[in-house]
Amino acid sequence: SDSSILEVFSQDADKNIPSINARHAVVLDRNSGTVLYGKNENEQCKMASTTKILTAIVVIENSPDLSAIVTVSSKAAHTGGSRLGLSTDDKISVYDLLYGLLMVSGNDAAVALAEFISNDINGFSILMNQKANELGLTPHGLDQDEHYTTAYELAKIADYALNNQTFAEIVRTSDYTITINNNSKNLHNTNELLGTLDGVYGVKTGFTNGANRCLVTSCKKGNLDIICVVLGCDTKKDRTQDSVKLIKYIFSNFSVVDLGSIINNYFNTWLKNDASKINVEKSTSSDLILGLDTSQIKFNNVAINNDCLENIDLADNFTAPLPENYVIGNLIVNINESNYFSVDILNKNWVERKSVFYYINGFFQLYFSYFDL
After folding, report:
1. How crowded is residue 134: how many other Cβ atoms within 10 Å of its Cβ?
2. Based on the number of CB atoms within 10 Å of its own CB, is 146 exposed (0-12), middle (13-18) or buried (19 or more)?
3. By C-alpha distance, which of 304, 224, 220, 290 is closest to 259?
4. Contact 118, 127 (CB under 8 A)
5. Of 196, 165, 207, which is closest to residue 81 (Cα–Cα)?
6. How far apart are the first and last CA of the chain?
7. Tens digits of residue pLDDT in 71-109
8. Structural contact between residues 315 and 346, judged by C-beta atoms closer than 8 angstroms
9. N or C, which end of the chain has less CB nearby within 10 Å?
10. What is the pLDDT of residues 23-32, one digit of tens each?
């Protein structure tokens, strides 16, 4: 219920990672693509109707006209599971079918859309797999042995889909009226967090006996924008509470920072206080010109744990020669318990090794210096 959702969210902030019922889960920072939390997030699993996120974006990107009218086939009308309530020969627009697909998870709407785009489900499945491959991923919500994803891949699909204005508008809608055969039908979004939890703006629920309860949620507060995925929850209450716990944990313990500034400030402090302790044996000069490989700092605005740690990982002693741009160590910023950013520390100048002539020259300099005394 709405009250139970708010009750979980109103509890005091906890720095400890929450215990959840979901078999698979992930929280993704949309700004950088960084995983802020994960539980078996890369294990293959069934995902129920959350697959309709990919179905919808394939339809939107391949439909020449979302206002086009679709005539519902007998196959689509008789598709089981969750339904929009279509009948054979019903007339409905692609746009309204998308609302039926995403708001009430209509399997009949999914088949009608697949047939409209590709004439049959197999052809549409090819398009879905092609889109998944385009996104660098390995890809109707009904259970099949070869129909699976991972929590992480599902988060990436949702992140991509939310960049589409049409998709984003549909999944943030709580109530909508569609038209079937010129008759109005009211729809209410099955996403129990939408309109209940502050900052939630999508995206999709799911349930089958094989996948159990699933929920993909997008939530934004300030400049922290995340996607939370929970898959394989035992009950609807579990998926709701798991999602709220994870969202609450992230917004209580993570902040968006300028990663470049954090890295540069820490590096400059280390240069001032500790870099002089580095010893290069057998070198003609003890001067090292050190710098960071700034090309490795790909994102400035990154969500990191408020208790993040920075550290320098390198040895104290090296032996010449050291080539120009030689990697002598790393500056590491922890994002959470399992993820971190690492930037190479480079020696920017060539450090020459002492040759035999260097020692001979040194001997004669010492010799003549002695007799000059």
Report:
1. 9
2. exposed
3. 304
4. yes
5. 207
6. 94
7. 999 999 999 999 999 999 999 999 999 999 999 999 999
8. no
9. C
10. 999 999 999 9
Please classify residue 226 by burial: count the beta carbons closer than 10 Å to its beta carbon, then call 0-12 exposed, 13-18 middle and 19+ buried: buried
Using the predicted structure, report yes or no on whether residue 357 has a pLDDT greater than 90: no
What are the Cα distances from residue 193, in Å, to 97, 160, 202, 217, 322? 22, 21, 8, 8, 57
**Closest to 221 (Cα-Cα) out of 246, 247, 241, 243:** 247
pLDDT higher than threshold 90 for residue 322: no
Residue whose structure tokens are 């408020």: 306
Is 284 a residue whose pLDDT tops 80? no
Beta-bridge partner residues of 226? 29, 219
**DSSP of 286-318:** ----EEE-GGG---SEEEEETT--EEEEE-SEE
- Name the pLDDT band for 275 (thresholds 50, 70, 90): confident
Q: What is the dihedral of CA 64, 66, 71, 75, to 10 degrees?
A: 90
Q: State the Cα–Cα distance between residues 106 and 9, nearest whole angstrom.
A: 30
